[in-house]
User: Fold this.
Amino acid sequence: MRVLVLNCGSSSIKYELMDMDGGRSLARGTVAKIGESGTYIEHESGGRRTERRVKASDHRAGIKIIIDYLMRGSSGVIKDASEVSAVGHRVVHGGEWFSDSTLITKQVKAKIRECIPLAPLHNPHNLAGIEAAMKYFPNIPHVAVFDTSFHQTLPKEAFTYAIPYEFYEKHRIRKYGFHGTSCRYVTQRAAEMLGKNERQLKLIVCHLGNGVTLDAIRNGRSVDASTGFTPVEGLMMGTRSGDVDPGVIHFLSTAVGLSMVRIYDILNRESGLLGVSGVSNDMREVIERAGKGNARCKLAVEMYAYRVKKYIGAYAAALGGTDAVVFTAGIGSNSPLIRRKACAGLEFMGVKVDPRKNRAAINTESDISTAGSEVRVLVVPTNEEKMIALDTVEVAKKAQALQ
Assistant:
């Protein structure tokens, strides 16, 4: 069974075609700058990578380009679009309607559309990708895999904000949590590495990338997440601020004279590593400049690691202890420095990192704890595309069985 995974952003489509019977990736890539000048595709298959300028005015044109590349010449891995058995779509927000991945129907699309006010930067483009893909693949199952669904198990005391309750009742303002697909994949892999059933474990998953989520997992279920009503809440990120006193927003509006639209843009696109360092939202560059003496870059690194450490401690308390702290995503999988700083001082709760193992663990599944560490410290590179593909197969088979 061949599954095409699509992740549609505002001006890009990330894709991967997987052979689920053989458990391997056939091709992957990105169509970037859709609707702009300089649109291009990066395509990888058979160990070869190509990059070319293309023309794509919208997502439908972008998906047509992807299909062409999957079939063309030396980069081709299928002869016809009919060889694709199902399409899995990443959808950021499913509100309170979706706690599992689901077959996309007219009704499901309507609910995704209703969630646009909750994720105005993401859901419209996710939906555009769904509509476009259904034009080219009209007779196969399309499955929506929601970033928020894994966190629908949060208890009410964890997801409710301490504001007038009517805002939840009328507008569903609450903590939703994000990066759930990544957290779910990493939870499963961590359990396998520990040789235990995930329902026997208490885990703290640290998804540290340009976006950041820390997640408290008990018995395979999310019980708290650092991201909230939007992905801005929680930890310092590449360009997002993370937790900020709401009074700052009021001050920026009334005293500085900024509009709410401008403030929201600052918190989403100009804050975090970029805002503090003044250099970049890329942790690699910030660390490099910090090593050369840049004071603001040093501060950005220390702030980032400190806040990760603080949330690890908070979630250990929420869980009543933890069996493992798990690092994933671009920074979590590739930065020994951030892992070391985030775990330093957590020895009191049984966290002990082996310096040699930590330095060697670069984007590979690893246990970086010392032999005597009561709490295991793991590195697990995430694979959201594989998780989406697995869900797509499961949902598609159930749908076919019901026909």
About this structure: The chain has a mean pLDDT of 92. The domain at 2-146 is CATH 3.30.420.40 (Nucleotidyltransferase; domain 5).
